[in-house]
Amino acid sequence: MSSALYASGVSVDQAHEDDIWHAKWFPGKNTLATAGSDEVVKLWDAKSGDCLGSLKDSDFAVTSLDVNAQGTRVLTSSMDNKMRIWNIDNGSSSGSLATAKPALTIDAGPINAWKSRFVRIVGEDGYKEVVASSTNCGTIKLWSSIDGRKIQELNTSRPNFIYALAVSPDGKKIACAGVGSHIYVFDIEAGALSCTFSGHSDNVRSVSFSADSSLLVTASDDKQIQLHDVRSGSAIMSLSGHQSWVLSAEIHPDGQYIASGSLDTKVKIWDIAQRKCMETHSQHSQAVWDVAWQHSSDEVVTMRPMLASVGEDSSVKFYDPLLA
């Protein structure tokens, strides 16, 4: 008989006033950022469930959320076509966070920033941080995180709406997908496609890299999760078990598991080596829009990462690891 992997932890009901679409951990910390259709970003203590602060600068739903590798900046995209970068003082009180204003606002133009991600590019002079955004016409745009100017554009050659976007932790690749079943992986330095995957049979909702940047997990309206090797450009496996669209999937930091969330209200944990679902969690009452594993920073190693999920029921759920 197999041992349980994760147990239900802190639950924050009515964490937002409407659907929660996004969840992102601050690296090396017990702090989770969430956002969705109520226009607000909130920061949570995963151990206590306390709200540590909030960020708001528009009256439009937040379509994307990201936290940089240092945990010092938050990036949002909203339905007003603007990306906002917020500087976060980890020593701030909740009051100062609540009144904070963006350090930079980028007006990307109509449907040019549905999803956005920080990109940490390694150069001769150290790290350079830029911003990637997805469009409704099959392109990815790169922007300066200093002055907001556009610096590069990547083209899938298909004029489809891209609403799934991920950047590899090593800063070398960008993956994107959306309307249609294709997944595109770009080499950032070369500015060109490095591989394309087409194993899904419906729209792709989520793309996410493994911690070592070698694997890509994707989730689709075809109810499947697929795992791909971006080094060889080959498909590895498909996982089936959800009863409706899979809205999010993410690989555990040690590469052993995949967590997924679905329109069927379930959170599932899959064992990659065994290619099967190990656990199903039913804490949500409506669609699970995002799942996120806690992960390490450059300075702090997270040995036993927690899992978080958010959804249409406006709640944030935390799951505590049971095994070493």
How are the elements arranged and paired?
Blueprint: E1 6-12, E2 20-25, E3 31-36, E4 41-45, E5 51-55, E6 62-67, E7 73-78, E8 82-87, H1 94-98, E9 104-107, E10 116-123, E11 126-134, E12 139-144, E13 150-155, E14 162-167, E15 173-178, E16 183-187, E17 192-197, E18 204-209, E19 215-220, E20 224-229, E21 234-240, E22 246-251, E23 257-262, E24 267-271, E25 276-281, E26 288-293, E27 307-311, E28 316-321
Antiparallel strand pairs: 1-28, 2-3, 3-4, 4-5, 6-7, 7-8, 8-9, 10-11, 11-12, 12-13, 14-15, 15-16, 16-17, 18-19, 19-20, 20-21, 22-23, 23-24, 24-25, 26-27, 27-28
- Proportion of beta-strand residues: over 45%
How many strands?
Answer: 28
Order of helices and strands: EEEEEEEEHEEEEEEEEEEEEEEEEEEEE
Mean pLDDT: 93
Structural class by helix and strand composition = mainly beta
> Gyration radius, to the nearest Å?
18 Å
Helix content: under 10%
Query: Main beta sheet: strand number and arrangement?
Result: 4 strands, antiparallel
Ends distance = 17 Å
| Spatial shape | globular
